[in-house]
Amino acid sequence: MFPVISYWGVLFCAGITYCQELSPIVTLSDGKVQGTVRKTAQDGKIYYAYRGIPFAKKPIGDLRFAAPVPNDPWSGVLNATADKESCTQALSLDNLSDIVGSEDCLYINIYTTNVSVLVSL
Predict the structure, then answer these.
(1) Which of 69, 107, 71, 65 is nearest to 86 (CA)?
(2) I want to staple 52 with a disulfide (CB 3.0 to 4.6 A). Which of 9, 62, 69, 84 is the partner?
(3) What's the predicted TM-score (pTM) here?
(4) What is the pLDDT of residues 42-95, one digit of tens each?
(5) Exposed, middle or buried, 94 (CB in 10 Å: 0-12/13-18/19+)?
């Protein structure tokens, strides 16, 4: 029985290590973020992508048309693996009713080859 438990324990630990490599977590000044490991299309170089990180409070209510207000820190790990919606914009000047995006667009994407650089953000 012991070898079976040990075997599954090793597989479980290996799975955790593998997941961490594909979803690196770093700690920024506002909290922890989880990104992804990606490869460049041309030469396959590894880089880390952290997408959709809030850098200011949502510009709604009294904050609409005001200077950005720093974001509150979050608890837990922020999922930074996908882009957020783009800022509001008209697709055509001929048809201003054709508008896409959101006013809630104060997010940044960070791409880096060195995760330790993010610690200072």
Answers:
(1) 107
(2) 84
(3) 0.72
(4) 999 999 999 999 999 999 889 999 999 999 999 999 999 999 988 888 888 887
(5) exposed
Kindly report the number of other CB atoms within 10 A of residue 15's CB atom.
10
H or E segment to which residue 99 belongs? strand 99-100
Q: Is 14 helix (H, G, I), strand (E, B) or coil?
A: helix
DSSP characters over 46-59: EEEEEEEEE-B---
